[in-house]
UniProtKB/TrEMBL annotation:
<dbReference type="InterPro" id="IPR007267">
    <property type="entry name" value="GtrA_DPMS_TM"/>
</dbReference>
<feature type="transmembrane region" description="Helical">
    <location>
        <begin position="138"/>
        <end position="157"/>
    </location>
</feature>
<protein>
    <submittedName>
        <fullName>Putative flippase GtrA (Transmembrane translocase of bactoprenol-linked glucose)</fullName>
    </submittedName>
</protein>
<feature type="transmembrane region" description="Helical">
    <location>
        <begin position="112"/>
        <end position="132"/>
    </location>
</feature>
<feature type="domain" description="GtrA/DPMS transmembrane">
    <location>
        <begin position="40"/>
        <end position="157"/>
    </location>
</feature>
<comment type="similarity">
    <text>Belongs to the GtrA family.</text>
</comment>
<dbReference type="GO" id="GO:0005886">
    <property type="term" value="C:plasma membrane"/>
</dbReference>
<dbReference type="GO" id="GO:0000271">
    <property type="term" value="P:polysaccharide biosynthetic process"/>
</dbReference>
<dbReference type="InterPro" id="IPR051401">
    <property type="entry name" value="GtrA_CellWall_Glycosyl"/>
</dbReference>
<dbReference type="Pfam" id="PF04138">
    <property type="entry name" value="GtrA_DPMS_TM"/>
</dbReference>
<feature type="transmembrane region" description="Helical">
    <location>
        <begin position="70"/>
        <end position="91"/>
    </location>
</feature>
<keyword id="KW-0812">Transmembrane</keyword>
<feature type="transmembrane region" description="Helical">
    <location>
        <begin position="37"/>
        <end position="58"/>
    </location>
</feature>
<keyword id="KW-1133">Transmembrane helix</keyword>
<keyword id="KW-0472">Membrane</keyword>
């Protein structure tokens, strides 16, 4: 991590301020030691909710095919995840538009890999084996969140 990025990471953000509030400040040492993973779990949880909720909206009342509903849900969820991961989880600012675009392209490329994995899970378990759509989506999301963390940590926001 270069000095500028380290300085940006060290700036107090809204989560640091929340953790310094009375009562919560007793958890501050644990929070500081595990900040990245805790924020990833928090925003991963929010991404999970966005993904499942938008999928359910497209698939159930709109009666879209599971694979199409999943792709539309993916577009919305990845936009949300990129912004939150970039700003809060990995604190990875860029100096110019070229670096920003490179970072965004890397993020989307990693997410396309897990989209293919998720689409395969949905195809097999919903379309071919007839399992319940929302249950399969939820299980697939757990797999995807774990893979996305590894890809983001090792390749995108290093």
């Amino acid at each position: 991590m270069d000095i500028e990025k380290n300085n940006n990471y060290m700036k107090e953000d809204i989560f640091d301020k929340i953790m310094s509030l009375p009562v919560l400040n007793i958890f501050n040492p644990f929070y500081k030691k595990n900040k990245e993973i805790l924020l990833y779990l928090f925003f991963g949880g929010l991404s999970f909710i966005v993904s499942v909720a938008t999928y359910a909206l497209f698939n159930v009342p709109m009666k879209m095919d599971a694979l199409i509903a999943n792709v539309l849900s993916w577009i919305i969820t990845v936009m949300f995840a990129f912004l939150t991961n970039r700003v809060w989880v990995f604190a990875s600012p860029t100096d110019n538009i070229k670096d920003f675009m490179k970072q965004m392209l890397s993020f989307y490329s990693g997410r396309i890999i897990t989209l293919v994995i998720e689409e395969t899970i949905l195809l097999v378990f919903i379309n071919m084996l007839g399992f319940g759509s929302l249950l399969v989506k939820i299980v697939a999301q757990v797999v995807v969140i774990l893979l996305n963390y590894v890809i983001s940590k090792l390749f995108i926001f290093k």
